[in-house]
Each structure stands twice: as structure tokens, then as C-alpha cells.
Design a protein that fits this description.
Keywords: ATP-binding, Nucleotide-binding, Transport. By secondary structure, the chain is of the alpha/beta class. The chain is built from ten helices and ten strands. The two termini are 28 Å apart. The protein binds adenosine-5'-triphosphate. Adenosine-5'-triphosphate binds at residues 11, 14, 16, 34, 36-42.
Length: 257
């Protein structure tokens, strides 16, 4: 379980997160929603260690990880994807996944993969895991394609694959469904549900499409103005006046909720 305990984040004079406290339950698929600028991505950055909060604590399974660096949190089982995919455009899909694996203790994963002959056993293991991940995500037909040439949706699948290569316990998905077609969106949802149910992976996803959230999430956290406004089931928050007000001032976009 991840817990944010009275987190504050300041960017110059702007308080992006203001004493936010919430929990992401182990084994669940939690949605993190809220209007633009609510602080959702900043909260992910705090959890992943990319941003150091000005106050508050981040706990992973009860242990204070606030001072840990991103790679130490990754080692502890945390992985994330980015709103804009971070693939290596000139590497193939398979190489992208291999390059995202955890290297053996004290080694650089690029040495393991690309200095052939030195690390044969490690390279073989990373290769097998990458092939399995490609199969799992049904990317076999583009396995040797340069990642830069993929469609937006395929890049999102590669992004998920890169996160999976680190054998995480918890994956943070930042708008993984944005800008991808219905077919891939539905495939992605199936994969997330399967990884949750069969491998027990915990997910937290930032997502604007509430129908997608309701398909995937059993719990929803709503952020507004840098703090937790409310939480509950999708139905609970959909009908919550404060949520409608926070999103739209009760106005024109109400139908989308
Ligand atoms: N690096 C930064 N420097 C300065 N201000 C920032 C930075 N990152 C975020 N902010 C500001 O912090 C606030 C929260 O931003 P954040 O991106 O976390 O919101 P969000 O809920 O993820 O929004 P969206 O749904 O639009 O992605 C916003 O006012 C944003 O402009």
C-alpha cells in the first residue's frame, strides 16, 4: 500500500499540492481523477520520487520512503508510465523492453545487453522476459519495429511493457488511455485487469474518461486544488455535488461525469 501523509509541493509561489493525504490500496486498481491542474501528475511524481515534497511523508507498505531516490523506489517495486511515452525511438520494441529491465546489482543494463559475451546469462534472461512481455501485450507483429515508428496506442503498450520489465508490485499509469483508439484502449484495459487479477499487481491510474475508470477501478480518489476532495466508488463520486462543482462549477460539462 502507498500512503501520502499531509504532502505539500510548492513550485515557487504556487502550492501545487496542499496537505494531501490518501492511500492507494494493495491489490486494487485505484483511479486518480480531478480537474486540470488538480495536482494528479505532481502526486505521481511525489510517489515515484521525481519531486521531493516540501512537507509530508510517502509510505510504502508502512515504510517511510520520502527520502528514497526514484531508482531506489523502483527497486522497492514501484513503476510508472508517463503521459507522453518515454520510449527510445531508435531502438526496436524488443530492445526498448530489454533496456528497461533492472540490471544485476552494480551493473549498467546497457552494458549487459549491448556488450555481448560479457553477461550472457543475464542477457538471455532479460531477453526471455522481454519476449514474454511482448507476447503478453500482443506486440509480436512489431517486435523488431523501431519504437519511434509505432502508433500512439502501441507506444502506450510499450510504455506499460517497460514498466512491467522491472517486475513491479505497483504501477502508476498517467493517462495511459489518452489519444488511443477504441480497440487498443479495450485491449489495454483487458491487460490491466488481467495483471491485477492474475499477478496481483496494484495499479493507480490518472484518467479523464470516467467510463474507462468505471470499467477498471474499484476505488476512485478525487483531487481538486492540490488536495483530496473525496473518494469512493465511481458511482459515489459521479453523483457527488462537490465533485461536479470542482470539475465544472456545476456547469456545462456535467454530462461527461
Ligand atoms: N514543474 C512545474 N513547475 C511549475 N508549476 C508546475 C509544475 N508542474 C506542475 N505545476 C503546476 O502545478 C499544478 C498541478 O499540476 P499537475 O500537472 O500536477 O495537475 P494535474 O492534475 O495532473 O493536471 P492535468 O490533468 O492537466 O494533467 C498546476 O497548477 C501546474 O501548472
Amino acid at each position: 500500500m502507498i500512503e501520502l501523509d499531509k504532502i505539500c509541493v510548492d513550485f515557487g509561489g504556487l502550492r501545487a499540492i496542499d496537505h494531501a493525504s490518501f492511500k492507494i490500496g494493495a491489490g486494487r486498481i485505484t483511479g486518480l481523477i480531478g480537474p486540470n491542474g488538480a495536482g494528479k501528475t505532481t502526486a505521481f511524481n511525489v510517489i515515484a520520487g521525481a519531486i521531493r515534497p516540501s512537507a509530508g511523508r510517502v509510505l510504502l507498505d508502512g515504510k517511510d520512503i520520502t527520502a528514497l531516490k526514484p531508482h531506489q523506489r523502483a527497486k522497492a517495486g514501484l513503476a510508472r508510465t508517463f503521459q507522453i511515452p518515454h520510449e527510445f525511438g531508435h531502438l526496436s520494441v524488443l530492445e526498448n523492453l530489454m533496456a528497461s529491465a533492472s540490471a544485476p546489482e552494480g551493473e549498467n543494463v546497457f552494458n549487459v545487453i549491448f556488450r555481448r559475451g560479457h553477461y550472457q546469462a543475464e542477457e538471455q534472461e532479460i531477453y526471455e522476459t522481454a519476449r514474454d512481455t511482448v507476447r503478453l501485450l500482443e506486440l509480436d507483429h512489431v517486435i523488431d519495429e523501431k519504437a519511434g515508428n509505432l502508433s500512439g496506442g502501441q507506444k502506450k503498450l510499450v510504455e506499460l511493457g517497460r514498466a512491467l520489465m522491472r517486475n513491479p508490485k505497483i504501477i502508476l499509469l498517467d493517462e495511459i488511455g489518452a489519444g488511443i483508439n477504441r480497440t487498443l484502449l479495450s485491449k489495454l484495459a483487458d491487460k490491466i485487469l488481467m495483471l491485477n487479477r492474475e499477478r496481483g499487481l496494484t495499479f493507480c491510474l490518472i484518467e479523464h474518461d470516467l467510463d474507462y475508470v468505471s470499467k477498471l477501478c474499484d476505488h476512485v480518489l478525487v483531487m481538486a486544488q492540490g488536495t483530496l476532495l473525496t473518494e469512493g466508488s465511481v458511482e459515489d463520486v459521479r453523483n457527488d455535488e462537490r465533485v461536479i462543482e470542482a470539475y465544472f462549477g456545476g456547469g456545462k460539462y456535467e454530462a461527461q461525469l
